[in-house]
Write a structure and sequence with these properties.
This protein has eight helices and twelve strands. With 260 residues, it is α+β, with helices and mostly antiparallel strands. A four-stranded antiparallel beta sheet has the order 2-3-1-4, sandwiched between helices. Strand 2 and strand 3 form a beta hairpin.
């Protein structure tokens, strides 16, 4: 028997919500977690349910198979099968409270100050803020300042980057470091996957606002923005069960919010 303990439920009505789907499966023995992709009157709904062990998943699959989700549509039967891989459980991340106007203004000013300070790569390859070192007033500041000047003369540009590379930085890199948690970074996308196909994939997820398709190191990368951190977490769990041309994509929370 396979070690997979996650089932895939299809044949759900388009109006199915995450709450309705969870209420249907939460009382089953061995239930751990669930995720719903699509639904809520937008697209075809597909659910994934994680159990403690493969035996509990098999029992749940037998109970749900050939049953209708909605009594108003008795002819619409659910189709249940074992998923190709387990649903990854994620710890619940509560939404961040909205910052007060004074706090938000202080954060924006702090971020602007940080962007004005050049980055310096020391001999050990670690990134140091030259502005922070200069403010310490220690004897370490002078050699670091000299190294920074030599590096600028040798390489040119901003923090070891050429002027052309600095101009090519994407809007994502220049975005303010506020509202973290609402943007996903999708990597390991098979070569040849079109932007239209990727957009249709992520646009079906709940809370989707927009995306940016870029190429990093010759490989396609997608940054997808959602309404909040909760929607991004749900979307990440849904995408972890998605395969493109037989390859599983890599999904993680981006370090900064995407600016559309």
């Amino acid at each position: 028997m396979s070690n997979i303990s996650t089932i895939c439920v299809r044949g759900l009505p388009d109006s199915c919500t995450r709450r309705e789907f969870r209420n249907m499966v939460a009382m089953m023995p061995g239930y751990c977690d669930s995720s719903l992709s699509g639904g809520e009157s937008r697209t075809h709904a597909t659910g994934f349910v994680k159990f403690d062990d493969p035996e509990s998943a098999s029992d749940a699959m037998q109970k749900l198979a050939a049953h209708s989700f909605d009594l108003a549509e008795p002819e619409r039967m659910m189709k249940v099968e074992m998923a190709k891989r387990d649903l990854e459980q994620r710890a619940y991340v509560p939404p961040r409270p909205a910052p007060r106007p004074q706090v938000l203004q202080q954060l924006q000013q702090h971020h602007q100050q940080q962007q004005q300070q050049p980055y310096l790569m020391d001999l050990y390859g670690s990134s140091q803020m030259y502005g922070d070192i200069r403010q310490t007033g220690s004897s370490y500041a002078a050699p670091m300042q000299l190294a920074y000047q030599q590096q600028q003369q040798h390489q040119g540009g901003y923090g070891g980057m050429s002027e052309a590379s600095s101009r090519k930085r994407s809007r994502y890199d220049q975005a303010p470091a506020l509202g973290l948690g609402d943007t996903l970074c999708i990597r390991k996308i098979p070569e040849g996957t079109s932007e239209q196909r990727l957009r249709s994939l992520v646009s079906e997820l709940h809370g989707f606002q927009g995306m940016n398709y870029v190429r990093a190191g010759g490989q396609p990368v997608v940054f997808a923005l959602f309404n909040d951190a909760d929607c991004a977490q749900d979307a990440m769990r849904s995408l972890q069960s998605v395969e493109l041309d037989g390859h599983a994509v890599s999904v993680e929370v981006a370090r900064r919010s995407l600016q559309l």
